[in-house]
């Protein structure tokens, strides 16, 4: 025993010296890291920082101009926060994918998250065990296999419904696109779109979506969070009164929509139940029967509802605006439309509508959908992230807590990836060496990548196939909407849509209406 003592002391001493040395080196490393420059960007002014470099609207256009001047990384300092704009796919992948654990968080959304109370949505959730639970639920519910197996018939029916509207009231083509897309997601998630008392859940959820997007688009309290603690009767506190009202309304919609869907599952109402609710609730109730764990049951229901609720808010406008872009592209680039129709006619013929079984025989149409995702990215400035620790990239310091923006518009117009990027050209995806697949960036990156990408792609595909099979789309002569320039064609809101335009919708056959069903 005695003979071991000096050895132990010596080894303890060594360990302590080793640890001290490691700490010293680490300390020096961090001190040197802290001295590294931030990525390039416009010079910040005293007190205001780069506030004057941040526009009030059409953000993605400004981010793209900054990228032309400063390169793929642009760093801004606005009072209270650092902002990094990433405009190259390589840098976005290096940071958001390869260093995913540093960049998987979202920033604090004071207005829409904390005051309106939507912080439980998957899209806005901070990196947390609850968010991880959502992601694992989503992996099972929105995988390519499940989308094909459970949702194909439904998506095909909604495309047919749109054809019916186009043939009966073509002047409403944009309003009806919105209606059909909203119903598509709501029915896939919750089953029925109304209830016994005649409440219209599509309308109610659309209201929630509009309100939440309004709340995410920027309130003073997001820059000065302390304002949330002032009493709501003070002048200038209208946002607090709005938030309280919206919170109550949204909670009621969320509760009622979910209760309606639960009643369908529990009562075995097969006609009105969605595969999403049925599969997930059935699993949860089985587990509860075995364990009797009520807390787990409540948590499970909350996760299923919060995730489903996120589908509507994240999935309706994004997909709808891309479909809207397909219609616009068809009138602006008529030769693309003709080529797609020639392919559809050759493969499908004129006696029946296209189905998902035709997909592999329609490569040009596949390229049209890819091109639509690139040409009019519906989330042009991405969805912000927040860095969880200091990071060093290409010799620059990205400090902990930086808000990260990925500029998908800039990526889509980058001439390093795309030749003549403002032209809608599906051929770019069909060349022996195809140009960059836009799915590499329009759906985001890494651990937060859009879980609805497959559902979105398939919905767009069946809509495009059906519309082009049935109708010729033509620009209305004399429509004054300026559509010649890339930057006039889209509105560049947080979720960006093409500007409204007029369109002539001409049936490609006399007996068109007999070809699709009328029971919607
Ligand atoms: C063309 C259509 C769509 C586009 C362009 C799109 C794009 C995006 C983008 C850019 C993000 C942020 C990803 C990131 O931070 O890296 C996102 C997140 C998300 N999307 Fe989509 N999306 C589309 C359709 C859908 C659909 C149909 C659904 C569901 C039904 C959906 C559900 C979600 C959810 C739940 C998130 C949050 C993921 C998370 O924070 O973990 N999206 N989407």
From TrEMBL:
Keywords: Heme, Iron, Membrane, Metal-binding, Monooxygenase, Oxidoreductase, Transmembrane, Transmembrane helix. The keyword Plastid does not apply. Its cofactor is heme. Pfam families: p450. Belongs to the cytochrome P450 family. Heme binds at residue 450. The chain crosses the membrane at residues 12-30. SUPFAM superfamilies: Cytochrome P450. GO terms for molecular function: heme binding; iron ion binding; monooxygenase activity; oxidoreductase activity, acting on paired donors, with incorporation or reduction of molecular oxygen. Pathway: Secondary metabolite biosynthesis. CDD domains: CYP64-like (cd11065). This is Cytochrome P450.
């Amino acid at each position: 025993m005695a003979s071991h003592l000096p050895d132990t002391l010596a080894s303890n001493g060594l360990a302590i010296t080793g640890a001290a040395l490691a700490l010293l080196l680490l300390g020096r490393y961090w001190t040197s890291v802290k001295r590294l420059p931030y990525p390039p960007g416009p010079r910040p002014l005293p007190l205001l920082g780069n506030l004057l470099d941040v526009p009030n609207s059409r953000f993605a256009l400004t981010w793209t101009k900054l990228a032309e001047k400063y390169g793929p990384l642009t760093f801004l300092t606005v009072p209270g926060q650092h902002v990094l704009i990433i405009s190259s796919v390589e840098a976005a992948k290096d940071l958001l994918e390869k260093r995913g654990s540093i960049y998987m968080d979202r920033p604090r959304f004071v207005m829409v998250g904390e005051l309106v109370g939507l912080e439980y949505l998957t899209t806005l959730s901070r990196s947390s065990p609850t968010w991880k639970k959502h992601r694992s639920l989503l992996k099972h519910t929105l995988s390519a296999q499940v989308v094909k197996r459970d949702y194909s018939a439904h998506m095909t029916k909604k495309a047919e419904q749109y054809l019916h509207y186009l043939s009966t009231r073509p002047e409403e083509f944009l309003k009806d696109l919105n209606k059909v897309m909203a119903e598509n997601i709501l029915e896939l998630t919750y089953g029925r779109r109304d209830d016994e008392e005649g409440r219209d859940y599509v309308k109610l959820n659309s209201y929630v979506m509009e309100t939440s997007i309004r709340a995410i688009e920027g309130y003073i309290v997001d820059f000065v969070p302390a304002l949330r603690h002032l009493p709501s009767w003070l002048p200038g506190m209208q946002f607090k009164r709005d938030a309280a009202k919206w919170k109550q309304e949204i909670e009621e919609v969320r509760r009622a929509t979910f209760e309606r869907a639960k009643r369908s599952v529990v009562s075995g109402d097969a006609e009105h139940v969605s595969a999403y609710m049925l599969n997930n609730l059935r699993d949860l109730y089985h587990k509860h029967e075995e364990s009797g764990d009520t807390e787990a049951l409540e948590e499970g229901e909350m996760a299923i509802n919060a995730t489903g609720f996120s589908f509507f808010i994240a999935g309706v406008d994004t997909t709808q605006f891309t479909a809207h872009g397909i219609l616009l592209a068809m009138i602006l680039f008529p030769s693309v439309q003709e080529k797609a129709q020639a392919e559809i006619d050759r493969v499908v013929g004129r006696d029946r509508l296209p189905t998902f079984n035709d997909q592999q025989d329609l490569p040009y149409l596949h390229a049209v959908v890819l091109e639509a995702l690139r040409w009019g990215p519906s989330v042009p400035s991405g969805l912000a992230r927040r860095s969880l620790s200091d990071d060093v990239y290409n010799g620059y310091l990205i400090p902990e807590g930086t808000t990260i923006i990925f500029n998908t518009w800039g990526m889509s117009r980058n001439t390093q990836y795309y030749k003549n990027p403002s032209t809608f050209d599906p051929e770019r995806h069909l060349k022996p060496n195809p140009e960059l697949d836009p799915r590499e960036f329009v759906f985001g990156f890494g651990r937060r990548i859009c879980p609805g990408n497959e559902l979105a792609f398939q919905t767009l595909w069946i809509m495009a196939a059906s519309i082009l099979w049935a109708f010729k789309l033509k620009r209305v002569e004399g429509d004054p909407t300026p559509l010649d320039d890339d930057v006039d064609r889209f509105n560049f809101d947080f979720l960006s849509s093409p500007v409204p335009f007029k369109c002539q919708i001409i049936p490609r056959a006399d007996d068109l209406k007999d070809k699709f069903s009328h029971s919607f």
